[in-house]
Amino acid sequence: MSVLISGRFNILHPGHIRLFKFAQDLGSDLVVAVESDRLAGNAAHVSEQLRLESVRSCSLVDNAFIFDEPLTTLINRLRPAIVVKGREHESKFNPEASLISSYGGQLLFSSGEMQFSSMELIRKEEELKTKGPIQLPISFMERHNISIGRLTNLIETFSNLRVLTVGDLITDDYITCEPLGMSQEDPTLVVTPTGTQRFLGGAGIVSSHVRGLGAESALISMIGQDMAGKFCLSELEKANVKNLVFEESTRPTTLKERYRTHGKTLLRVSHLQQAEVSLQIQRKLIDRATETLPSMDLLLLSDFNYGMLPQEVVDELITIAKINQVVVAADSQSSSQLGDVGRFKGVNLLLPTEREARISTQNRGAGLVVLAEQLRRKSSAQNILLKLGADGVLVHSPDSAESFSTDQVEALNSSPIDVAGAGDAMLVASSLTLTAGGTIWEAACLGSVVSAIQVGRLGNRSLSGNEIKAVLKDFSR
Question: What is the predicted pLDDT for the residue at 338?
């Protein structure tokens, strides 16, 4: 039973792979028709032969070809048992519907299974240049005219920037354990702790990354009167971050514990308060930002939904930044269905995970491009970097008021050790790149490289510009 999918396929991203997987499960023969350059017109950003080769490279596709005729004519000629389209077309007029029904076929809409991982099925691009576990997205760089020299120059300009980070300070404890076996009383794994490493997390490591990449860095946040808070202040001082943090006796510093053995995390324990901070604290936070933002180039909002950034505070911070022509980027971790990354209105850059974007838009079925556009419209963000975990990042940016471009950077580290902090690293590097005058494509590229470096080591450690330039230099040889 044949199943037909048609489209332009400028970039074969994970959303397409999910659609292919859904279609393949319906029948024995998946046929993909790629729109010709003539039919696609200006919407074809890549030549038809390259688009066809990309589709054919996917192991899910049985047959793929270029079509240069009306879709209804093609369907009438092939008469597939099932035609599959993305769910975004379900509420629109579909001229092929009556034709498909007339010969007993089916028109189905789906975006596939959300948990499906395309990286298990897409073959690596032959031109992807690899040295060790970290890769560079060579074809992505070629599509957007990005050179290693250009990325290096952007990093060097970071030293001219001044950055204010506002958000939740977190202390991360990594507790190494030795497994002893199973409990005799119940099916429980028994371990004994052998050592603890403590790291700066949350908005703290974000501000530390900023300083490590060469920019001036200041942090507004809050800690409790406890040992975890003292550790945070000590680490900020070592990183040479300007400390605008205030202490509150009624609210402990957020502490997260990760129990690990043999390179795997067994359990995470979080000690925190999630209630919104008091109006008095909100006012103190806004006053400090009001004093600081006029001298800044970039505002980073690092939100973990622990109550540090209520909506009123977010709105006022963004307003102050815009008045002072400060670039704004936001990352908000939704630990429950209550999180909403779309509440950061009008920012220059928004960096949600796919799950966070779906929570914000309340859309579980849309394809990734449609999802990113819905979130962009809801938040009025200028650019979206949709983080896809092992599938990398989807870059979504408007070309004009009515059109947009989308591309993907695959995950660039083939042997990650600890994924904690990957989003923080990407937030900093991509935001600094935009502020330094780089394009969204350069921002996504450099953010992905930095994220790949970060996940290659245990713990959320501060990055350095020299470290990143060394990786880039290695690939330029």
Answer: 65
Question: In the structure encoding, which two tokens stand for residue 181, read together?
Answer: 């076996």
Q: Which CATH class is domain 129-167+204-245+276-476?
A: alpha beta
274-311 tens-digit pLDDT: 888 889 889 999 999 999 999 999 999 999 888 889 99
Is the distance from CB of 83 to CB of 19 less than 8 angstroms? no
Strand order of the β-sheet with 264-271 is 189-202, 169-182, 254-261, 264-271
> CA separation (Å) from 1 to 96, 109, 112, 220?
19, 17, 19, 60
Amino acid at 163: V
- Architecture label for domain 2-120: 3-Layer(aba) Sandwich (3.40)
High-pLDDT (> 90) share of the chain, %: 54
In this prediction the pTM is 0.77
Structural domain boundaries of the chain? 2-120, 129-167+204-245+276-476
The string of DSSP codes covering 293-332 is GGG-SEEEEEE-SSSSS-HHHHHHHHHHHHHTT-EEEEEE
Residue 402's pLDDT is what? Answer: 66
